[in-house]
Amino acid sequence: MEKQLIKSKKMLWLITLLVLWEIIGSFEVIHPLILPKISTIIIRLMQGIVNGSILIQAIHSLGIVTIGLIIGSVFGLIMACLDYFSSSLKALFELLASMLHPLPGVVVLPIVILFAGVGAEGIYLVIIHNVVWSFYLSAKNGFINVQKEYLEVAHNNGANNWQLLFYVLLPLSTENIKTGVHIGWSRGWRGLISSEMIFGAISQIGGLGWYMYERRSFMDTPGMYAGIVFVMFIGLFVEGYLLPKFNM
Amino acid sequence: MLFTLHFKKIVIMGTLFIVLLIFTMGMLSGCKKQDSDTLVIAEQYGLAYAPLQIMQKKGFLEEALGESVEIQWVKMGNTTAIREAMLAEGLDIGFMGIPPFLIGIDQGMPWKIMNGLSESPLGLVTNDPDIETLGDLIDAGKIALPQPGSIQHILLSMSAENTFMESNIFDHQLISMNHPDGYQALLVDDTVVAHYTAPPYLFYELEDENMRLLTSGKEGMNGSFTFIVGVCQETFYENTGQYAAFQEALDASIAFIYDHPEEALDVLSEAYMLDREILRRYLFHDEMIFTKELNGVTRFIDFMYKQDYLNNQWEAEDVIWKNN
Question: Which domains does chain B have, with CATH numbers?
Answer without folding.
Answer: 37-120+225-318 (3.40.190.10), 123-221 (3.40.190.10)
